[in-house]
């Protein structure tokens, strides 16, 4: 018995050592590219081109960020993205709540049929072309509405919210309120909403990250540069290598190549930093969201 | 009998009218933005012209579908979609499970917390930036890859993005880099609800930690694994457009042309000669296959456990 335990103790030590090593390696392999990009964005173009940057910035410089600041499109993109994220998330949250709450009430007539109407859209859709034709027919092409209305609600998030409401808002609460003469509107605004702060935070975060990061709707529906979100400009610069003329100072044309490189790293940082800064503080909400989503009805 | 049914119906509706007012907006929204486009699928059976509209265009039956399936492209596009998807699942599915099992068996709280926060971070990087990062790091001259290659061989290394095979590796492994941490959240949560008394009992019997992983931890998350795997298989034909489109170039088109990018290319990108009907037909085929897969998979998962999507 004793011998057995000693043996297992030794084996455990090996196992723990392996776990720590593997997890450390995985963590570092995720971290390294992030750190590298950050360092590259603070290095000088020539140091980067010469391959001197490995972990920390070399020849610390803010060239890249200066170029980003001078780049008009970035500001346009940033402004639009903030607008789409705020307005879009607002619409999303309202739509999700007014849909999820009635469907969470078990004795609502037609609840099953209406739920089916929504869930069916998760498994079947008209696809890209009919969607585009609809937006065109509604004269939404090239307007902010094309960015806000077609994705006004995600059925998945609605179901998450409905599941949450079903488990938190008890029927006794509703009965008690009704006896006191409270109608459904009032019950929703003064009792349901305050009790569902947790789920509101979760879905708002999911929606907001989605708005910030997507380029698809803008790519399909917008052609006016003044309406472009940041992601479209990022696509042009980072992926397709298209720079607009005002980007590079003619005086440093010789350094243009290096400059573009540094600028790309800086743009990656500038566009992603808001979400990264925000994440550690909201981590528990995201984790909660994944959890509620996995609970079945 | 009949009368009383309508009577209670009316009573219920009168009682809950405020709820129906709430519901009206989302219902109208879903009808316009989900069901009207489904109606637009009739374009797939027409020779659609914008001038004549859906009601005036000529009907051609299944011609568009026949055209797709008899074209030399169709086989390759469908197989590209499937290969990319299956590769993603086979390579990407086990990693979050292993990560969760390992991190769950450790004690250091601080270490666990830091590690989890770090591996979750890439989930918040947009596809545009992710692809941008790939292009930057693997740039043959200035990227890490180029610098290392030049240091080792003395010459500029070959461009990795030009080959079809590499496209798949880049697509899948960058996806894993981005999502394995996020994917592990659900398993870590499932593991935290394992009854500690099992572990106590096993410890008294002299089981090693590794044995406990295999005989306690793993079996307890098995139901979650099975359900997630089944559901994942249901979406095998629906790869997102965004990332593939960004990584596509003329050299890797052979492997990177998948259904959604092809639909875009035929229907919207080719200005002037865009064939809406043909593109709609391909999209319709894809949606149909997706639906059949999801329904089948859901039936299977119902059989396995008491879980289903609806």
Order of helices and strands of chain B: HHEHEHHHHHHHHHHHHH
- Report the strand count of chain B: 2
Number of helices of chain B: 16
Number of helices of chain A: 14
Give the domain tally of chain A.
2
- Head-to-tail CA distance between termini of chain A: 47 Å
Strand content of chain A: under 5%
CATH level 1 class label of the largest domain in chain B? Mainly Alpha
How would you explain this protein's 3D organization?
The complex is a heterodimer of chains A (297) and B (310). With 297 residues, chain A is mainly alpha-helical. Chain A folds into 2 domains: 2-69 and 244-294, no CATH class; 72-227, MetI-like (MetI-like fold), CATH 1.10.3720. Chain A has helices at 2-41, 45-49, 63-70, 72-104, 111-123, 128-137, 145-148, 155-168, 171-179, 184-195, 197-213, 216-221, 230-239, 256-294. In chain A, helix 4 (72-104) packs across helix 8. Chain A is globular. Chain A starts with a helix and ends with a helix. The model of chain A has no long low-confidence stretch (mean pLDDT 86). Chain B is 74% helix and 1% strand. Chain B folds into 2 domains: 2-59, no CATH class; 70-304, Orthogonal Bundle (MetI-like fold). Chain B has a two-stranded antiparallel sheet with strand order 1-2. Chain B is built from 16 helices and 2 strands. In chain B, helix 6 (94-104) packs parallel to helix 10 (164-192), helix 12 (209-234) runs antiparallel to helix 16 and helix 15 (259-269) runs antiparallel to helix 16 (276-304). The relative contact order of chain B is 0.11. Chain B has 310 residues and is mainly α. Chain B is flat and about 75 Å long. The longest helix of chain B has 29 residues, at 164-192.
